[in-house]
Design a protein that fits this description.
By secondary structure, the chain is mostly helical. The chain is built from 4 helices and no strands. It has helices spanning 2-12, 25-32, 37-40, 45-61.
Length: 71
């Protein structure tokens, strides 16, 4: 599926984020409890994935990654 998404993005000249946020049990449980994933399960794979997305995005904006911003 990712390969097809990248093909379509290339056709339209759209950039696709490299990091992928996986769907996890922890993410669903956090949502059910009405809690931010970072508070509910900060070391879960989905929480780490979201941090990678933030780092990727900040890099695109020319900022330092999340590990340097006090999180």
């Amino acid at each position: 599926m990712r390969a097809r998404i990248r093909e379509i993005a290339d056709e339209y000249g759209v950039e696709v984020m490299d990091p992928v946020v996986r769907n996890t049990v922890s993410a669903r449980k956090a949502q059910r409890h009405g809690m931010p994933l970072r508070d509910f399960a900060p070391r879960s794979t989905a929480a780490v994935d979201y941090e990678r997305v933030v780092d990727w995005y900040l890099e695109k904006l020319g900022h330092e990654g999340s590990e340097n911003d006090g999180r």
